[in-house]
Amino acid sequence: MKKVYIETMGCQMNKSDSERMYGMLSNFGYEETSEPKKADLLMVNTCSIRQLSEDKAYSLIGLWGKWKKTKPDLKIGFCGCVAQQKAKEIFKRANYVDFVLGTHKIYSLPEIIKKINEGEKVCECEETHQTEDNEAIKYDIQRVKSVNAWIPITEGCNNFCTYCIVPYTRGRERSRLPGTILKEVKDALNSGFKEITLLGQNVDSYGKDFKDRNYRLADLLKEINALEGKFRIRFVTSYPTDITDELIKTAVELDKVCEYFHIPMQSGDSDVLKAMNRRYDREKYFEIANKIRKMVPDVTITSDFIAGFPGETEEQFQNTLSAMEELELDYSNTAAYSPREKTVAAKWVDKYIDEDVKTERLARLNEQNRKCCLASNQKFVGREMEVLIENFENHNGKNVISGRTRNNKIVHIDCDKDLTGEFINVKITGSKTWYLTGKIL
Ligand code: SF4
Per the structure, how many domains does the chain have? Predict the structure, then answer.
């Protein structure tokens, strides 16, 4: 069999795409290798959220291009978000690349492989306005061995936040068909996965684009929840104003849906939110988060924030720090603003914040995040919680299992037995900044 290696960068959506690509390639006589030097086909699945990640992708294929000099049959593919954006330009920059594959045409991979093996160079980056579900059904997915299966339910985004490249790389929002999603969920459960995470840039707007049916995220959750067996359901990422009361109620009623919401706020200042083209202000976000806290017992709410958005003043940045604190957020992903070509905010060069200031603000944001995480973790000490075990490792001579609670808290437990994939009841005995410690009951 020929060997394929895919270097995956960026978000869970890309990881999920790579699992699909591995699945398709296995039907064409390729087996996965973890050693790029042994591969006959090398692919990089790129991320364009930050310049750094894009630069890394180019330097990686630069290295692979050198290998080609001594291994002329080696094939190189440039895929994912940067491919979608730059398309044929990639060939100009790296003429040793054999194919460029954007995010919209993943299911043309088998056709591409045939063509490159006949010596053609191929670029498949046109935007499509439909899901590729009819194609998806033909191939098994080669999931990374884990307890958690990530299943995309929507692709793309219509929001056009002024800093974000996603609508340009992933296109307009398209919901996948319920039948295809349910098939993927059943397949994952039959293969032993214990947690299903439904994935989308705006997961709560699932189904808004269906013309032939009235079927939304709450309906999908109900169908998945009704499947037999013990497993958990999560859904990410939520856009604040798309979270309806019906969805929150459904999440509370369904026993398999976990008490966890990831709701990016991005800034705690209403004027910055307006400049970001987010469709809510500080007060609205507080209202939504507080409502969820009231309706969902033990819920954790996590978020994303950007430091140093163009034009952000010190006072506006302080509103972000205070929002994080007052909302008692359980964890936040943080990043300094990075301009992305094509986006509206990237053109506001005269409002760019100095790199030093951005770095300093990011450090303060991270410090506030650390305080919030520790405070959140401390609330659970003494509680009994169910943990789904994901790992078994030896830390400094001690065997430790670790996993997550329903509300997504990481728990480390001393244990000599590998219980990966099992649900166990644990007494929480301690809290650190990023995780809890516990004892098996
Ligand atoms: S909601 Fe905004 S930040 Fe999120 S993917 Fe869409 S455009 Fe990007």
Answer: 3
